[in-house]
């Protein structure tokens, strides 16, 4: 049963593929980096549901570097990541400039940006510090371990709720995880 931060970390640590992705990301040397969204959420929901871990659609690496805002820096990091693990669908983005795309005030860190992702259960991320997996849950773990889809505070208006609903449908979450509850 997955109910605590330690349990969530255990889900990640027990998955050799996840640990390989974390190690490869650490080797990139990106500042303030975290992997979030489906990388954590889907593994936890699969573990709770007794399902095998599905291959990632993408691996969302969020990092924060005010000094290297050129999007080509992301492309270079992705190219290095692909050389390390070519089978991984990398998506590496410097959150120091992503506020422009999202119409937000400037983010102060990678975690500030992650806290604004669409669903509370998506605003969860891991990083590797030495050999230790560190977990952050920007809006707590209750929705993640309770299999609840709820808009994050940044998306808690009519347009945001509609975005969350479209994401649930487009990604087929209700088909994969029968126990998922929508609170939109």
Q: TL;DR of this structure?
A:
The protein has 184 residues and is α/β, with parallel strands linked by helices. The protein is 45% helix and 16% strand.
Counting DSSP H or I runs of 4 or more residues, the number of helices is 9
Overall strand count: 7
The termini sit apart by 25 Å
- The mean pLDDT is 96
Total of domains: 1
Write down the secondary-structure element order: HHEHEHEHHEEHEHHE
Helix proportion range: 40-55%
Poorly predicted runs of 5 or more residues = none
Largest sheet: 5 strands, mixed
Task: Supply the helix-strand structural class.
Answer: alpha/beta
- Percent of residues in beta strands? 15-25%
Using only C-alpha atoms, the radius of gyration works out to: 16 Å
User: What spatial order of strands do you see in the largest sheet?
Assistant: 3-2-1-4-5
Structural shape? globular
Name the features:
alpha/beta; 184 residues; two-stranded parallel ribbon
Reconstruct the topology from this structure.
Blueprint: H1 5-13, H2 16-27, E1 34-36, H3 38-49, E2 59-63, H4 71-84, E3 90-94, H5 95-102, H6 110-114, E4 124-129, E5 132-137, H7 142-145, E6 148-149, H8 158-171, H9 173-176, E7 181-182
Parallel strand pairs: 2-3, 6-7
Antiparallel strand pairs: 1-2, 1-4, 4-5
Describe the structure.
This protein is α/β, with parallel strands linked by helices and 184 residues long. The protein has one domain. It is 45% helix and 16% strand. It is built from 9 helices and 7 strands. The chain has helices spanning 5-13, 16-27, 38-49, 71-84, 95-102, 110-114, 142-145, 158-171, 173-176; strands at 34-36, 59-63, 90-94, 124-129, 132-137, 148-149, 181-182. It is globular and about 40 Å long. The mean pLDDT is 96.
